[in-house]
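## retry 2 of 3
previous attempt timed out at serialization; input unchanged, resubmitting
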Amino acid sequence: MAVLQTEPDRKDVLIGAYVSRRTHSYFTLFTLAKGMSKSKVFQELFYDFISRQKEVDPESALIRQIITRVQKTRNKSKNRDMDLGTFKKVIQAELLQKGVAENYVAIIISEII
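## retry succeeded, writing output
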C-alpha cells in the first residue's frame, strides 16, 4: 500500500512528457514535501498557461492554423496524388488519434479543399 499516493480523477486525460532525471528528482521531492500530487501541480501549471495563452491564441485561431498546415501538406506533390476523400479520412483519423475533439475535427475536415 502506497502511503504517499493520491488517487487520480478518472474523468481527466493523461498528458505525458519526458523530463531529465534531475528535474524529475526535484519535482518528486517538491511534491512529497508539499503533500501535493504531481498531477495537481501540473494541472495548476497547465490551467495558468492555457488561460494566458487563450488570450493570444483563441481556439478559432488555432483551428485556422491547423487548417493552413493541413492545406500545405495537401499541396505537396506526394499528397496531391491521394484523392481528396482519402486525404480527409487520413487527416480525420490522425486528429482523432491525437485527441482532438470531434467538433474541431469536423470543422477542420470541412475546410480542406
